[in-house]
TrEMBL record:
Compositionally biased spans, kind Acidic residues: 1-11
One GO MF term: acyltransferase activity, transferring groups other than amino-acyl groups
Cleavable signal peptide: none
PANTHER family for the chain: GNAT FAMILY ACETYLTRANSFERASE (PTHR42791), N-ACETYLTRANSFERASE DOMAIN-CONTAINING PROTEIN (PTHR42791:SF1)
Residue ranges, annotated region (Disordered): 1-33, 119-143
Name listed for the protein in its UniProt record: N-acetyltransferase domain-containing protein
InterPro entries xrefs: Acyl_CoA_acyltransferase (IPR016181), GNAT_dom (IPR000182), Trichothecene_AcTrans (IPR052523)
Species whose genome carries this gene: Thyridium curvatum
Domain N-acetyltransferase: 119-257
């Protein structure tokens, strides 16, 4: 039960993230034996969630291989540790300094995180998310938020390729959502490999879609092509497919029911 202060803060910054009474998509009864819980990511969760979910989930992803193709063959153990630290610092910056909402799924018996979902509300207008992200609410009262800014790049990674591809992906995102007003952009969707295909990702994505529907926002995601059918189940459809040397990436958009019905 949130305190009065917490309730006032939520009312000031907009509606809280909706909580499902039961996770949709858990069609396999065996999944429930893990007694999973869903909650917001807090500062103390940054390391465990990044190390335990984000990094294992992205290990063989097409997007990671595309960004790091020229660097991975030459990475030694120290280089891999440096890259891991960079990922963790990037997640910390997103959670503590950005405008986003971040959710974790954990095993209730141990608190070990097994899933991560995160989104920001982007806009073609000067104002960003009018509701204010969960991180913005925290950082507003955090005088030390600047300590979470990631201002370094791993020396073992070839930065020029990473920069060029990052810019290409940014331009693709802006091209798709540029005239749509406020758009709920899926930035994080990761499930630990041992917990995949058990409904964890469906639970997280349903939360994101429900948030977008309540606000009346379209939703956007850029995902490797093999993962596109998962998003299609939630109403996303392909806008652009572009090929790379390590696989295809798909830009996908989803409109809220109010728009489709209108």
């Amino acid at each position: 039960m949130p305190s009065t202060e917490d309730q006032e803060q939520e009312q000031e910054s907009g509606p809280p993230v909706r909580r499902s009474a039961a996770p949709p998509g858990f069609d396999d009864p065996d999944s429930w034996r893990h007694n999973l819980t869903l909650d917001e990511v807090e500062e103390k969760d940054i390391g465990p969630v990044a190390r335990g979910v984000e990094i294992p989930a992205m290990e063989n992803s097409a997007l990671r291989l595309l960004m790091l193709r020229d660097s991975l063959p030459d990475l030694d153990s120290a280089g891999h540790r440096e890259l891991e630290r960079w990922y963790i610092d990037g997640f910390a910056e997103a959670v503590m300094c950005g405008d986003g909402y971040y959710l974790k799924v954990c095993k209730s018996s141990s608190g070990i995180p097994v899933g991560l979902g995160g989104w920001t509300v982007d806009s073609s207008s000067p104002a960003k998310d009018p509701q204010g992200g969960q991180a913005r609410r925290r950082a507003r009262d955090d005088r030390h938020a600047a300590q979470y800014r990631r201002d370094w790049f791993p020396a073992a990674v070839k930065g020029e390729r990473h920069r060029l591809i990052s810019e290409m992906l940014k331009q693709e995102r802006e091209r798709i959502i540029g005239n749509l007003g406020h758009v709920c952009c899926v930035d994080y969707m990761a499930v630990h490999p041992l917990f995949q295909r058990r409904g964890v990702g469906s639970w997280l994505l349903q939360e994101i879609c429900d948030y977008a529907d309540v606000q009346g926002y379209p939703a956007y995601v850029l995902t490797p092509k093999p993962e596109a059918p998962f998003f299609t189940k939630f109403g996303f459809y392909n806008v652009t497919i572009f090929d790379s040397e390590v696989g295809s990436l798909v830009s996908m958009i989803r409109y809220p029911p109010a728009v489709l019905d209108g």
